[in-house]
């Protein structure tokens, strides 16, 4: 129960960031950078009496109904909460904290900050194994009927929305919107990798037994032992390998420096670890 509460709290923080990025930076500049939010910005141009948040809510409900009919019930509660919650957040901003004018007069600055804030929020949502629906659903429908890969389908749906933005708001705005789609993908990837990244540490030391005990008893992490032979000395050496968090690596490095400052340490970034002591495989 505690874990579920934490997940939904993080999702809520994520959709608030996405909503703020869209409403305060993208909407005032008509930057329809893909997604249901982008489509809502385009439609709002022609039907200004309907707020962007309400348009997103209607479209997400329609998309979910279509998805359940066409694809099946492959959408979890967290995704439904995220997509409808995002629509609600933007409606809340429109209702109680309406934007009067763009944050700055520089469209590029608005695009960059809107995408950065929104991308961080999307990364947080995706890290909780949820999504904000929208074009994800459109992409799956395109994949089902036209057999185009999900990734290409997602890019296609976002591209069509930015194309619509170009026709509606002008070629320059459309190009900025397309740039936003590209940047958004990179930001989300970096946030996801940055949160889940761990350190794979390989150690060769004369104090291997002490280091092994420290990792197992102080850091509470597992250690794998290998036997290796040095090509120059032909001596047999015991090699320790462990996967730990970035914070734990700092502690381990300081400990090794104290017990054996001649130890050999090799460190690699690992972008995702599943299994005992980390995120369980059954969480996906």
Features:
single chain; 284 residues; alpha+beta; 2 domains; four-stranded antiparallel β-sheet
- Our count of helices gives 10
Shape: elongated
Strand content: 5-15%
Overall pLDDT: 82
Q: What summary fits the major beta sheet?
A: 4 strands, antiparallel
From the alpha carbons, calculate the radius of gyration and give it in angstroms.
24 Å
Count of extended strands: 4
- Content-based structural category: alpha+beta
Low-confidence stretches: none
Keywords: Cell membrane, Membrane, Transmembrane, Transmembrane helix
Pfam family, one: YitT_membrane
Transmembrane segments: 7-25, 54-73, 108-126, 159-183
Domain DUF2179: 221-275
Please characterize this protein's 3D structure.
It is a multi-pass membrane protein. Residues 221-275 form the DUF2179 domain. InterPro entries: DUF2179 (IPR019264), N-reg_PII/ATP_PRibTrfase_C (IPR015867), UPF0750_membrane (IPR051461), YitT (IPR003740). The chain has 284 residues and is α+β, with helices and mostly antiparallel strands. It folds into 2 domains: 2-195, no CATH class; 197-283, 2-Layer Sandwich (Alpha-Beta Plaits), CATH 3.30.70.120. It has 10 helices and 4 strands. The protein has helices at residues 2-26, 35-46, 52-70, 77-96, 107-127, 135-146, 150-169, 171-196, 208-218, 246-259; strands at residues 198-204, 224-229, 236-244, 264-270. The protein has a 4-stranded antiparallel sheet. Strand 2 (224-229) and strand 3 (236-244) form a beta hairpin. Helix 1 (2-26) crosses helix 4 and helix 2 crosses helix 3. The longest helix is centred in the middle third of the chain and has 26 residues, at 171-196. The radius of gyration is 24 Å and the shape is elongated. The relative contact order is 0.12. The mean pLDDT is 82.
């Amino acid at each position: 129960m505690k874990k579920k509460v934490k997940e939904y709290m993080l999702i809520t923080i994520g959709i608030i960031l996405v909503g703020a990025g869209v409403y305060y930076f993208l909407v005032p500049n008509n930057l329809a950078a893909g997604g249901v939010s982008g489509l809502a910005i385009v439609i709002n141009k022609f039907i200004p009496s309907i707020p962007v948040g309400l348009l997103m809510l209607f479209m997400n409900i329609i998309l979910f109904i279509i998805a359940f009919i066409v694809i099946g019930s492959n959408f979890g509660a967290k995704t439904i909460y995220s997509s409808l919650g995002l629509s609600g957040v933007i409606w809340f901003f429109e209702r109680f904290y309406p934007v009067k004018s763009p944050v700055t007069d520089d469209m590029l600055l608005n695009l960059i900050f809107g995408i950065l804030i929104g991308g961080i929020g999307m990364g947080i949502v995706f890290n909780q194994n949820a999504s904000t629906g929208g074009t994800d659903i459109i992409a799956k429908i395109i994949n089902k009927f036209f057999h185009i890969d999900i990734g290409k389908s997602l890019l296609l749906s976002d591209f069509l929305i930015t194309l619509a933005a170009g026709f509606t708001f002008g070629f320059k705005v459309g190009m900025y919107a397309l740039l936003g789609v590209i940047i958004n993908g990179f930001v989300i990837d970096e946030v996801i990798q940055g949160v889940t990244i761990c350190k794979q540490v390989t150690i060769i030391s004369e104090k291997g037994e002490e280091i092994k005990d420290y990792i197992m008893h102080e850091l509470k992490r597992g250690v794998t032992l290998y036997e290796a032979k040095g090509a120059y000395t032909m001596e047999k050496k015991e090699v320790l390998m462990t996967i730990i968090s970035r914070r734990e690596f700092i502690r381990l490095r300081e400990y090794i420096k104290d017990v054996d400052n001649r130890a050999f340490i090799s460190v690699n970034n690992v972008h995702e670890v599943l299994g005992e002591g980390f995120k369980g495989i059954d969480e996906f």
